[in-house]
Structures are given as structure tokens and as C-alpha cells.
Amino acid sequence: MKKLSMVSISSLLAVSFIAGCGATNEKPEASASAKTEDKSVKESAKPEDKSVKESAKPAEVVTLKYVLPGNEPKEWAAVKDAVDKKLQADGVNVKIVKEYIDWGAWEQKLNLKLSTGEDFDMFHVMNDWISLANYIGRGAVKDVGPEVAKYGPELKKAIPDSVWSGVQKDGKTFGIPSYWYEPAVDGSFTANRILLNQAGVTDVPKTQEEMLAAMEKVMSTDHGASKPYLPIRGGLRDASDVLHRAYDSYPFAVKDKIAFIDKDGKVKSWAETEEFKKDSAFFRTAYQKKLTNPDILVVKQEQIDKQINSAIYPFLFGTPNNVNEMKKTYPNMKDEDFTLQRLNPDKPHYRMFNAKNVNAVAANSKHPEAAVQFLNWLYTSQENYDLFMYGIEGKTYKKVGDRGIEYLKDADGKTNLYLQEDWMIGNLKYIRIDPNTLSANKALFVADPNAKTFFAADFFFDPTAVKSEMSNIQAVYTSDIMPIYDGVLDYDQKSKAAIDKLKAAGIDKVIAEYQKQLDAYKASKK
What we know:
Helices cover 36% and strands 13% of the residues. With 526 residues, it is of the alpha+beta class. It is globular.
């Protein structure tokens, strides 16, 4: 995601939702590494592959239906018309249709489309929300290796090998990754120095205990009807990597929300680890002290987004991304009022994911080549990118300098007339940045020269052998595990019964399969 707010959407995400969670920014100089040609994609399809022969460029214009979360921008119809004309003028016989699904119904409606075999072509995957491995296990995505090899020369230039590896397994390519940010930023949080200073907190916390104490002080000040909750949304969000730097076992990764992978390559059931228990204790304290939304399990993403955009929070798990809205809350704010921080800042920075956001081709797509042709066109030039991502110059946005941008607003002065979020389908080679963007957000788009890559960053699990167990486990996570993780239910009182349900659902079999595949992955890297 980026829903970094859903963590995250993305984060946050959701996070992120975090995260997830989307910003529109510039390409750093270090993104020149994206020019490295992806040999693994080339090798995923040989010229004689039958699937490539059958994917000949269609004689007639093909409609590409792209399903994505969010709400349709006001000027999408005008932008779509311009995009379709440019595609055909460039010899790409594709026209695009976007179907937006409201965030609150995203998972349910997308799953329904996939399970009923509805006719559409491409959809967005947020690995920090519902993982690519999950969709692969359900047989919901198509291997597009042959199409990328034939129709994706610009894709292979714009996306580095390390990012491609996050969507590839056993010679197959299960999607087109969005190379839009520096993954080492994950694990950071934004500190609102304005609210912290008003509450008498002058030092940014370096431990979980200090963070909780600071949040409590901020909450005790008068903020009227708007409460400065920690902006997170419950449910099947990703594990909160912001907290993990506090543990001696760091670095470790939590994959697919169920598998804990330690630095030595040992896989455990996430809900049965000491780290899960510690995370839950943090959120339990926050929930009991009313530092998180009392409706955390049902709060809508739109509510979280509104809170984040208004910057009514002491801390944000992720980065801020709407400085104009923030200034309505804090007219005199300065860049240094919002800073990017980490718990235990002396510990190294790690990249835990190489492909957090992916655009996958649905298994039932009749035109997988159209998705690849479109994305290849998108990453061919700045002109193409600007048109699809930002719209019509002078009508939906204005260029500012070489790589800057000003988004034009609707009559309400708040809503962009058009924007396709970079975090969904963007690329560092072309991203534009609002000149007013905060430094805390710009960090997303600057390579971290000192960051380390966790050994399993590009490993992803193929759940085919345990897909029924995975489905049952996800159901238990939703009903029993996440309410504990989010702090709504007490760990000591509820964890045993919840873990018993996980055992009955087949968690041990899944973790054994996870270990088997991770061992094979490690052996392949020697």
C-alpha cells in the first residue's frame, strides 16, 4: 500500500493503511539503477514459447480494464480520452477503463470479482495489505513473463532487477512492480513537533515507552472534537514495523501477516512469537488509554485519511503527504515541524520488501498483453507518464520547474481534479514533486546509501500446496488474531483460544511449507 497509514496503506499504506499509503514526488539521482536490464524477466520466456506467439499485437483496439481502490477523480473522463488518443497515436492498440472500488469495500468486492471470474484485466496489489502470494495461491493472477519479454522493453529499463525479483518465482513473473520509493524508509514514523511541543514533549521518543508517554501527554491537551489518535486502522493490516526496531531480535520480517522470519532464516507462526506479544501489548496500552481510535476495527479508511491529511496526530507510522491540507490546520507550520524518525535510531536501516506495490494481471484476463503494452507505454516517456498520472497540463495540473508539479483543485479547494497515485503505478524515473512537499516525505524518494537489504526481502511464498489452510488461517486472523494485535482484546486472556484456532486451521503445516520454500530460496542464492 502505499497506504502507509494502514501499516502501516499504506501505513499506513492501511497504513498504510498505510500505508499505505500516496505521495507524488521526484525521482532521486540514485534511481539511475533502474536502468539495469532485468535478465531474470528475459529468461522467464524463451522466443519459442507458445504463449508469446499467441499474444500477437491485436489488429483492433483492445479495452484494458484496470481495477483499483479509491474514488474516481472528477476529470478522469477527460484524461481517459486524452490517454486513449495518445496510446493510439503511438501505435499502442489499447484503450483503458478504470474501475474504482471504495476503500471500505475494496477487499470484499475484489475477491468477489476474482472468485466469480468477472471479465477484467489488471488490478492493484498492496503486499502490506493482501499479499501477492495470497492471490497466487488462489490462482487469481496470470504469469506475464512471456508478455513482458516480448512487449516490455521499457519496463525492464525502468524497474531494477532487485524489484522484479519480488514478483518472480520458478521462472514466472506474477505482476509488474511499482518502483516508486526507497523501501528502507519503512519502519520510520513522522513526529508532529507542533503538538508535541504544545504538550511539553521536547525530545522525540526513541523507545516504545517514550512514544506512549508522549502520546498520552498530547492527548491530555485540549483539541476540541478532533482527537489526536495514532492514525491506524485495524483489520488485516500489516505488522507494525515501526515498533520492531525496539526488539533485540531485529531485523526480522513478517510475511503474509502470518510468517515470522528471523535473521537466521528460521520461520515461526507470527501470532505465536514474543514479538507479536510485545506489539500487542503496545497497542493494548494505547487502546486502553484511548490513544487509538476506539472504533479501530471498523473505522473507515476515509476517516484515517482525513486525520492524516489534517495532521491531527502526535505520530504517524509512515510519511505525511498533503502539506496544503496540513497548513489549514497549522497555517504557520515549518518544514522542521514534521520530522521523520525511528525508534532506536542507531540501529541499521533495512529494506524488508522489494516490491510492496504491484499491478497484477487477472487470471481470467483475455488480453494480458494489453496490460503489459500499456505499462510499457506509460514508462516510455515523461510525456506519457505525466498524461496518465497527472492529467492534462493546464487543466488538472501545472508543471513547476523541471520536475515540480502543482495540482489544480476542484471548487472546494481541497480535492485534486485528477491524480493517479504514484504509489500504485508510479516510477522513480518520472515522478514529479510538489515544491512544498515536506522533507519528511521527500525521504521516500531519495536512495539510502547506508541501508541494508534483509536477506528475504525478495522472497515470496507460493501457497499453492496449502491454499485451503491459508484461507482458513486468514479467516482466523480476521476474527480472532487481529482484535488481539490491535489491542481491543487482551493477549493474556484471548491468545490461547485464538492460537488453538490457528492450529486447527493448519498453521503448522503452512509454516513448515514456508520453511521448506525459504530454505530452497536461500540455497538458490549461494
